Write a sequence for this structure.
């Protein structure tokens, strides 16, 4: 997503990066929003709640309609959003063609022109190398691009409790933060453009490793005669402790209020995890970084997608790995 | 290790498991200790400190001498320990032949006779299936066997801060606890015999997975331009958090007082981790449990042993995975 | 399986290993056979066909009955076989307790006594370390033990086309060969006791790796638009060639007369492969040998057992890895 | 590499794909060659040997000089080659920016114009998706693009014994074949554009899996007491057989004339294999194909690059996995 900054006093010779003072005057002016999916819609709603006029677009008319009823202005395509707003947030699926709003080839989605001095904030999860390309493209148009992927799911998006990991020119962080704090509880500056994506990808890779590891471990312990609640307790007071063991345990009955207690409905889908791990894998390949466990985690989530787990929560890897007694054989 | 209970009033028809009351009277009577290595020696010292007379043995005379000077009685072999003490603690390397004190074939180490009603506590880390065999063998001799492997290294052994994970007959746990609390800060009852080993093995498998995962992740993040301290901070406030990221970070400079800050000296050696993972693998194979990441973690630590990392701390996997700039090639 | 040599002139002071001349005189005397399962039954039949009187036993009466009708003498248990025959072949499932005929604890299966000078040939697939233990046990009884596991399935067993990989004292190989050539087309001497098992395990580990690798590769190629027959042809004329690509291709329609053309019925079952890989893994763990791909292959076949593939041919890994279009998700 | 067809009778309204008859008339007219590295130089020489005038370019002047002395015309950049030749072969390193001759952004390497009706043959190993993009770009310029990656190393390139795997419009295959047969012994038509790359990538992924698998297996067998030559012989007559075991065995002393007999000098470098596996991984990720062993093979070759094996032959994985006795530890 992109976030165009409106600056009323823009002149031909305005320096590319406006001073913070002019930015704070820009508050409560129109914010563009591209991508009103499961995540984007509640995010845009939170901008409305905080008093920002929103101009938005999405390929699905129903998503647009709901936001329109809440007061947003709906336009036909991303280019129109960029025409009118000079702060634009994008939240798009990780489809490569869609995500290349500034550098892609599609005439329907490509934004060829943005206002000079605009701030573009992309909250999609994409390859950090693509973020860098977009930043270069934005700079050529006299705009600023920042990557700001999120952690936290639909619930956090609705309640405005997302965490944003932000990469981009440090001088622009305050401007981005002003908008992002309307939608999230934590806004973390990570460094140069692309580092927001890097932080997101790194976290999710380690999360996947921890989740599969916890599932294998719990399964092994149960088979060795340990009570799962007790095993979780022991791990959580020991060096095996991780988020997947103490906060999101994949074994039904060990914890309340997590997808494992609800037949792995809701939560963070296996196919979304597989996508993020694909990004991690590609990024690691391109930087020649060995990621043996991350790579195997990717393959396991990919196999799960092939075996009917695509839309279950990613903690269902416990179920996937567990022997089916009937099928077990000798 | 075994722990023989002395009960002065033992008669021919004494029930196998004595009531707790008789056990508490048994306190401060002689405790046997077999295995005075890096871990066993400080453990035995802590028993002496708590006022227990100790009768001990080890294959290395020097280890024995040090304990003798502190007041322990030294005997020639395990059988003599078992002859005199009716509570015996064992702490042996995971060499299969050594660990089978009750079921093995070696005439030098095999204990063929224990006092009726003895309590044998084994703190070695071994295959839970072997623990079960030993429990059966002990029962045939009228004794009780419990497995009580530890977490925590030499430092925790010296300061009496070990965690014991105890498996065995629940009625005997109080008796075991009385001794183990002299040597450890936590004594956790895990269930039937073998479950102490199971808990230990499970924890260490998840620990290895978390450590390698953290190392891959930190390495990838650094290559993507993230500051390692900042990345660790982000992971630790997010779902990637684990013990290896927040308590024992493998990247030099991220944390103080961990082996990564000291060229991976000290800590928990790679070859010890490889051994524990070998146990996890064998146990998983025997119970037909899929452990894909645990299995790959085992292979990685095995490869590290082959490449000169055997005696470095297991967090040196970060160093192992990191590209050597000189060797990197095109 | 064990193969006891009858030697009519045995005296108290007979040297342990008889000269070859006495062995050739022993031909056409009774051969013991323990284990009449899918493999053992046709093997024993081939001994009968070659004119050897057979004395056999099995836990399933039906298996025994069929062989009895062909002229074999049936007895109640392994001990009786060992009492009467001095050449005994065993072909048992890889259940550890069953396989330890000479060193196990079970009163029903343990053979405590064999004739002096007997030849025991075990064709079961077991841990080479167990073979070595059995050889030691046999030697103590004045007998000779050889391991002679087979490659080739039920079809090869019926047609006498098995390959035997034989480990044991070289001087005894001729005696073993005499019997094994009745049941197999190739009898290969591998070295000291245990090396027959080693060769079998090594072959099957590489076979599993090749089969999964071929399946991944064919699947990837098909998804990239290649015709599967053409891809197989290209691989088979290039460096990707392996037995699984050129002789037992896992993709339906590429080859005739292989399980992939028959819905993966028949052939070598996934659960049998998982067992052999478990042996390979355990052996590698005990010898501290890194086997990263072998280990992952083991995990994949273990996961397949958990997902309903236990009794399908092991080439069904192609089907397991293939994306199910309906389940694929976004 | 691109191969521009010269057709003397080209008119404004010439159909895009010339009939084969006109192509055969085109023989012995100038052929462009872009990329004169280890592989490209001997390939271009073979074109010269077959009587084709060659117009070539490379970033390294020395490479150019050698070819110039043999009669080739040297020009400054790819665009000049494309200006003059209407059959162009490219053989570039897999650096993404270099390989995107038709679609890239670099002003130094980008070819913006080719002659109408040109034939462009790319023998570099790249992502099949990039080949498809280049085919689209070529078509827009009125030219034809084919991918024709090679198997076989520098030796095969020198002796004209390469294998070409060709993807592209079937009608153009004869024209491509005419040139490629000057440089290779086998020219295989694989299907639509991109399938040449697909076949190459698939073969190399399976090759890597087979090589690591063979190395693990040989290592395990040796540790279990098998003679390596005997083990290789057994595998090669059994179902474990593969190209790496029977033609390019990685164990020193097993075969003559392979890199394992020459301290892993020469052959196919580990870093080149790591690159091809990176392509396979990326392609698998993009097509959502699970490749667990391929993915782990990639990671292992990546780790080897990090540990000093980058320029050794890829069969040195045997050495990498082999335990170093000194370092082995307890």
């Amino acid at each position: 997503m992109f976030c165009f900054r409106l600056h009323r006093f823009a002149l031909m010779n305005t320096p590319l990066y406006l001073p913070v003072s002019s930015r704070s005057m820009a508050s409560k002016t129109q914010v563009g929003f591209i991508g009103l999916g499961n995540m984007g819609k509640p995010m845009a709603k939170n901008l409305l709640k905080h008093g920002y006029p929103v101009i938005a677009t999405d390929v699905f008319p129903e998503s647009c309609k709901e936001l329109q009823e809440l007061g947003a202005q709906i336009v036909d395509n991303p280019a129109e959003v960029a025409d009118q707003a000079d702060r634009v947030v994008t939240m798009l699926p990780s489809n490569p063609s869609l995500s290349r709003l500034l550098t892609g080839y599609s005439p329907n989605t490509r934004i060829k022109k943005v206002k000079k001095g605009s701030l573009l904030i992309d909250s999609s999860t994409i390859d950090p190398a693509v973020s860098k390309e977009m930043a270069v493209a934005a700079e050529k148009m006299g705009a600023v691009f920042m990557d700001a992927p999120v952690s936290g799911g639909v619930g956090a998006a609705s309640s405005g409790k997302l965490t944003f990991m932000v990469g981009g020119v440090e001088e622009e962080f305050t401007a981005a933060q002003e908008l992002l704090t309307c939608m999230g509880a934590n806004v973390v500056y990570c460094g140069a453009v692309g580092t927001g994506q890097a932080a997101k990808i790194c976290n999710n890779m380690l999360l996947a490793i921890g989740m599969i590891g916890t599932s294998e471990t719990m399964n092994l312990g149960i088979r060795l005669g340990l009570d799962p609640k007790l095993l979780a307790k022991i791990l959580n007071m020991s060096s095996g402790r991780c988020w997947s063991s103490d906060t999101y345990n994949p074994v039904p009955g060990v914890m309340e209020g997590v997808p494992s207690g609800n037949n792995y409905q809701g939560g963070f889908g296996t196919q979304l995890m597989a996508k993020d791990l694909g990004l991690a894998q590609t990024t690691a390949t391109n930087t020649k970084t060995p990621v043996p466990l991350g790579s195997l985690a990717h393959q396991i989530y990919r196999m799960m997608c092939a075996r009917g787990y695509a839309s279950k929560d990613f903690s269902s890897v416990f179920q996937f790995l567990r022997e089916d007694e009937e099928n077990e054989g000798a």
